[in-house]
Amino acid sequence: MAKEEKRVDPSVAVTEHYFKQLFADQSDFQSKQLFIGGIEYRLFYFDTLIDSSLIQEFILRPLLSRPQEAVRDVVSILDFAETELFDEAVHAVISGKTVLHRNGENRLYLLGADLKKERSINIPTNERILRGANEAFIENLDTNLNLMRKLIASKELIVKTYTIGKLSQTKIAVMYIKSIADSSIIDKLDQRLKSIDIDYVEAPGFIDELIREKKFSLFPQLLITERPDRARAYLMEGKVVVSTAGSPDTIILPVTFWSFFQSPDDYHSSWLVGSTFRLLRLFCFLITIGLPAFYVSVSSFNPQLLPINFVNTLQSSLKYVTFPPFVETISMMLLLEILREATIRLASPVGQTIGVVGGIVIGTVVVQSNLVSNTMVIVAALTGLASFVIPSYEMSSAVRLLSYPAILLSSFFGLLGLAIFFMFICIFLCQMSTMGVPYFTPPFSIKDTKDTLLRAPVWSIRNRPAETAPHNQTRLRRPRSWKR
What are the residue boundaries of the structural domains of the chain, listed by start? Predict the structure, then answer.
């Protein structure tokens, strides 16, 4: 049987007793008594959440000048609501609103006079590009929505809000273009978000794990960005953007494997340059996974596959090395991860120094001590650089972790083990999907290749992806119509 909600009593004394009993342990909770025109008023709020100047200017001063009129006609605050339920008033107080009770009325007035403290809009820190907008999302959800509304000044931009987390009451906004997005994807996302039953949300990682389809997949299934212009570009393709209060990162879904190798720089330069760098990123993906494993294979099992001069050089560098290729490869890869974590966690000036000096010193010492070969140091450095070329941090991290099982298989079966590993990865990717959209759609047709493996000229990309925009695929109608 559902619990009956407690309704507001006309007496301010009853309301004060209810709030003080509920917030007895809260030292920053305030209850102020006022007598205006012979009428008793009570204000309830947390003084750490409200802006006292707003209360003075837009609540108290209008009440003092017109005490006999209705509160709704006097108070000049846009964020104004009324309620007859105590539960709604309690939630309003916790959210930073001021609750006003006029004696003799069985309703409470919820007034938005909360204190706004947020950092200014700054340049993106994790997705730096050479050209393009220099605005990034911040932790305030309203500001992020403001940025998106300015970029897409259309009634077709739909924003739906959800509150997730029984204790945290985290506000989440879902954005999509009504005339473009697939309604079935919107319905699936709505169902999954409403089914979340959790105490608090530390977004966007929690949302990612709670709505993803493959729970144990290393490959990211949602794209995370801090750039409003990138979010707009994906909205125009029929995708959905999820923004969360308290985090500058937004989630884009559904995405495919190829989305993680696209960068805004691709569209701010020539299509030939953009295509070249996109192919380079895909090549670096293969290097990050396969190069250390290939080194183990040719060192231990298949040296005959290399030119004789290269084999002689490799064997001479391994002649006095203490450990077998598998151990030295794993050791150098772990050392690379340690250096990377150290540079991230330390302060910026110190981290840069540790990264440069640590890499040089450790690399020199391990080679001179015959712990690893010169070739292995080159392989580790090239693998680390290749992983940093991938634009998505989530994909870059997943690829680095995948190199370890590839090394293990190569240490047992040589190049056959590496081939089996890549075959397993392809099979796994082909059976994945996000929100019903195939994750690894092979880009073999000309239509699919235009914005996956390559970045075709803008005038030739006339259609949106059929998976995310099935009802409105045309994005460009008369390209270069000025030319006759």
Answer: 12-111, 141-255, 267-434
